[in-house]
């Protein structure tokens, strides 16, 4: 089941109002591969609350002078760390339940 935070239903104008980022900044972060909005059949971007949280973190880092390529690398590394942790946990659970059989 998908969390409400991941439903891509928010327009770029609303994201602009919620984050204070200009539409151009939001599109730029998409171009840089930092966020991935869904596109409607007409090409309208739709964002989720999770996207808004990511954009706020990006904005904070940019205010601190962090470049977008550094932010992207950090995001990729965090995803890898999460994937590795998930894989290890699955392995531990599988090993545990195999012992119980």
Give your account of this protein's structure.
The chain has four helices and two strands. It is mainly alpha-helical and 101 residues long. The protein has one domain: Multidrug-efflux Transporter Regulator, Chain: A, Domain 2. A two-stranded antiparallel ribbon has the order 1-2. The radius of gyration is 18 Å and the shape is extended. It is 64% helix and 4% strand.
| Beta fraction | under 5%
Count of extended strands: 2
The assigned CATH architecture is Orthogonal Bundle
Oligomer: single chain
* Helix/strand order: HHEEHH
Outline the secondary-structure elements.
Elements: H1 12-19, H2 23-31, E1 38-39, E2 45-46, H3 49-63, H4 68-100
Antiparallel strand pairs: 1-2
Summarize the structure.
The protein is mainly alpha-helical and 101 residues long. The protein has 4 helices and 2 strands.
């Amino acid at each position: 089941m998908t969390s409400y935070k991941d439903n891509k239903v928010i327009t770029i104008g609303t994201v602009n109002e919620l984050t204070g980022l200009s539409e151009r900044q939001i599109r730029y972060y998409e171009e840089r591969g930092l966020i991935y909005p869904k596109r409607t059949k007409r090409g309208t971007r739709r964002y989720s609350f999770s996207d808004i949280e990511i954009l706020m973190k990006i904005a904070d880092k940019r205010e601190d002078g962090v470049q977008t390529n550094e932010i992207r690398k950090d995001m990729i590394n965090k995803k890898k760390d999460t994937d590795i942790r998930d894989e290890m946990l699955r392995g531990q659970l599988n090993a545990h339940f195999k012992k119980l059989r």
